[in-house]
Specification:
This protein is of the alpha/beta class and 456 residues long. Helices cover 39% and strands 21% of the residues.
Length: 456
Amino acid sequence: MKAIFDENLIKKYDRPGPRYTSYPPATEFHEGVGEEDYKRKLLESNIQRRPLSLYFHIPFCESACWFCGCNVIISHRKDVSGRYLDYLYREMEELSKYIDISRPVVQLHWGGGTPNFLSNEEIRELFGKIREYFRLSEDAEISLEIDPRYLSGGQLEVIREVGFNRISMGLQDLDEEVQRAINRVQPYDLMQRVMKDLRSLGFKSINIDLIYGLPHQTPGKFRKTIEQTIELQPDRVAVFNFAYVPWLKPLQRKIDPSTLPPPEDKLTILRMTIDLFQKAGYVFIGMDHFAKPEDELAVAQEEGTLWRNFQGYTTKKGVDLIGIGATSIGMLYDAYFQNYKTIRDYYMAIDGGKLPTMRGYLLSREDIIRREVIMELMCNFFCSFERIEKVFDIDFKEHFSSELEELEDMERDGLLKLEEGAIRVLPEGKLLIRNIAMVFDQYIKSKGERRFSRTI
């Protein structure tokens, strides 16, 4: 069932709201939750014996992309990564005191920054250390992000050799004027060569990230970028809305705001993007993600088993996510934890013999119930009352009586259908799924929405 772009509905519902990579969202994290809570929750997680998902943050980049909102360190010195890796190993050693390492790792991801900032030797060394401390499942999803502009000789071969089977890479926009305005020149022929190499090496899944709303973008220019991206045939595509927030991300001050496309052009680009990818056979997964019908994301959504975590959409529901490295976030069943954001604080904590936990959040039972409902809607566009009732021993209609009443307005607008025992999101509601999920968000209702990006 394809998503339908209704401009009037989009304008009506366009407001700030969480992206729900977690519930409660990370804006609720606080420093009252720290290292001792993390140790306790890790030990508790061993009793449940949920599989593990590991995220490693590699913060280094060789050059600055002016649109970037990530926690990165720009450096031309390759020797900075060696010290950082030593601290990653020390963090893993400390974690191994509290995690039963016989638990299978079903998912591993290196993000950044730019993980291919590491040398071939460092890639081999880090992957070897991970195998020392954790047990990777034979069918594990093992992925990393790359910057195609800085792939060194034989690097893709090493990445594949050690065990990676999935790749994600940023493309943003293929127009040269746009690329110069964001300080990321990345020609189409480079992308063609890299895609050919990735396919020949047998990577199972390849993701490409695009961004709309960048300086000098127009609907015509971005159409060409989409058409060329479709020619590359990635398995997954993410098309993010650029958030211009120079007061939060000073690097964005290098972008002239007068060159940013007006809101009406961004809406045109969004409509065109959805139309072109769906016509090319991609499934609209949700918000800003598309996947080929045979991709695991599309299959999981069809089967109603898709989920979200701090890395976005995932097929691995029911796992404990362990974040390793500066700024990384972990997600246990009933608790979230984040490491220190700066390298200095991260190093100081580990030098003090501690887990580098800066803040977190402990979930209540009500949080967990509402998370389940929100994630079912966000990921699968459907929520069965009976399933929620069986898991949590509640009467759905009674527990969420005010929320169901609130959804009646959205039903009248054609966003969803309130069935006898379920909420079913309709094609017109898929683009506004964050708005639908927000109905079940207690924190939005008590604290407001202004802390978040706009839903469209």
